[in-house]
Design a protein that fits this description.
CATH superfamily: Amino acid/polyamine transporter I
Subcellular location: Membrane
Protein name: Amino acid permease
Order of helices and strands: HHHHHHHHHHHHHHHHHH
Radius of gyration: 21 Å
Keywords: Membrane, Transmembrane, Transmembrane helix
Number of strands: 0
Number of helices: 18
Pfam families: AA_permease_2
GO molecular function: L-amino acid transmembrane transporter activity
Strand content: under 5%
Number of domains: 1
Oligomer: single chain
Helix content: over 70%
Length: 454
């Protein structure tokens, strides 16, 4: 039987973690966060806190990844801890909203960035954005169809370009004549508590933007069967890769807030055709700088889209292998050694999402849904420590039980506050996950469940 090829090294895995995270969020989300909070210190604090929470999540996940280094990530963890139904609902949620919406949102920003370079505006612009986004998904799905090594090589080349570009942005920003440390202490006239009725409500809603920026740190677990020495390399890749991204994000947001006063960022939030990072670099380096950052956003969003297509398709492959998804998705291409049908199904649904809603609706919805399952994984680490203390753990989470409990508490708070402050997005996400129930009952009744342990 054709199997997935185990070809990803530790360094490649670390770069895939970074590639799966660094996308559009760090360039776009600072403006709506500024409008929500009205304070540069609070905006920066949101990015720092989201980074700490994401790192705590990565360290927590690393214990699971070391114990269960198979294709499917959380789907495999949940099947072991909570049973097939909960595992299926995670996988179905990944297919209907969490992972496919990530692909759709990233591709959408790619289209926006490309049009900003050409200066296209007006009624036809949104149609053009969706056509470009759909074309990008088709192209990158084809790249990943052809093989994991080819797709990983493309991702590695693009992330090296991103590292160089981040250094250039920081240099230009801190040299900008319009930059000032006083920008970090200014606030808008409107009190921050007006937006959601409380400072905590505004902080949670704004943090959705920061968490979207960090979204994707867990995806490396999906390709456990394709990583060399996964029990050792998966935990290291999660911790190191996420730490690199936290440093990059804090640096870039400090540059934005240094160059532009908070009221200018708030104004940008009301003009969705403008991207905050582009306007910041325009202030620092003029037209050439704006062109440079626009090209950088094209690079990072295409890279993150590529990583988001490469890794999550393995979840749907693992589900199909267990008889809990469309049977054809379990097929491994005999020549390319990829879950070819799962990649095609993922791309098809991602394109549908591109045409179904706005960028911010998609990202808020997927962050909410994702954190339900992030919390379930943190709880699972604690449950397994109690129920199966003798199971082999190549890596044990640092600071246990404080780190997983902290991450679980943050996940619970974010889920509850999103239900209160953004009920439409939250309930839509839950509704999409619940649509999987009749499919689960059908597949369970009509198809035998065969679990393979590679």
């Amino acid at each position: 039987m054709t199997k997935l090829a185990r070809s990803i090294t530790l360094n490649q895995a670390i770069l895939l973690v970074v590639s799966g995270i660094v996308g559009s969020g760090v360039f776009k989300k600072v403006a709506p966060m500024a409008a929500e909070l009205g304070s540069p210190i609070l905006v920066l604090a949101c990015w720092v806190m989201a980074g700490i929470v994401s790192l705590a999540g990565a360290l927590t996940y690393a214990e699971m990844a070391g114990m269960f280094p198979q294709s499917g990530g959380e789907y495999v963890y949940f099947r072991h801890i909570y049973g097939r139904l909960f595992a299926f609902l995670y996988g179905w949620g990944a297919f209907t909203v969490m992972r496919t919406a990530t692909i759709a949102a990233l591709a959408h920003i790619f289209g926006q960035s490309l049009l900003s370079l050409t200066g296209t505006h007006g009624a036809s612009a949104e149609l053009s954005v969706k056509l470009i986004a759909s074309s990008l998904i088709v192209f990158l799905s084809f790249v990943n169809y052809r093989g994991v090594s080819f797709a990983e090589g493309l991702s590695r080349a693009l992330i090296y370009l991103t590292f160089v570009a981040v250094i250039i942005i920081a240099f230009l920003g801190f040299q900008a004549q319009t930059g000032s440390l006083t920008h970090l202490t200014q606030s808008v006239q409107e009190p921050v508590t007006n937006a959601r009725g409380s400072l905590l409500g505004s902080l949670v809603v704004a943090s959705l933007g920061a968490f979207w920026g960090y979204e994707g740190w867990n995806q490396i677990g999906y390709i456990g069967e394709e990583i060399k020495s996964p029990q050792r390399n998966l935990p290291i890749a999660l911790g190191v890769g996420t730490s690199i991204v936290v440093g990059i994000y804090i640096l870039l947001n400090a540059v934005y807030l240094y160059v532009l006063p908070i009221d200018k960022l708030v104004q940008l939030a009301s003009t969705p055709d403008k991207i905050a990072a582009v306007e910041v670099v325009r202030q620092a380096a003029g037209w050439a700088g704006a062109t440079f950052i626009s090209v950088l956003i094209l690079v990072t969003t295409s890279n993150s889209t590529n990583a988001s297509i490469l890794m999550p398709a393995r979840v749907f492959y693992a589900m199909a292998r267990d008889g809990l998804f469309f049977k054809a998705a379990a097929r491994i291409h005999p020549r390319y050694k990829t879950p070819s049908v799962a990649i095609l199904l993922q791309g098809f649904w991602s394109i549908i999402l591109v045409w179904s809603g706005s960028f911010d609706q998609l990202t808020d919805m997927l962050v909410f849904a994702s954190f339900i399952f992030y919390g379930a994984t943190a709880l699972g680490v604690i449950l397994l420590r109690q129920k199966q203390p003798d199971i082999v753990r190549p890596y044990r989470v640092i600071g246990y039980p404080i780190v997983p409990l902290f991450f679980l508490s943050c996940c619970t708070l974010l889920v509850l506050m999103t239900l209160i402050n953004q009920p439409r997005e939250a309930l839509t996400g839950l509704g999409l996950i619940a649509t999987g129930l009749p499919f689960y009952w059908f597949w369970r009744r009509n198809r035998p469940v065969v679990v393979e342990n590679p």
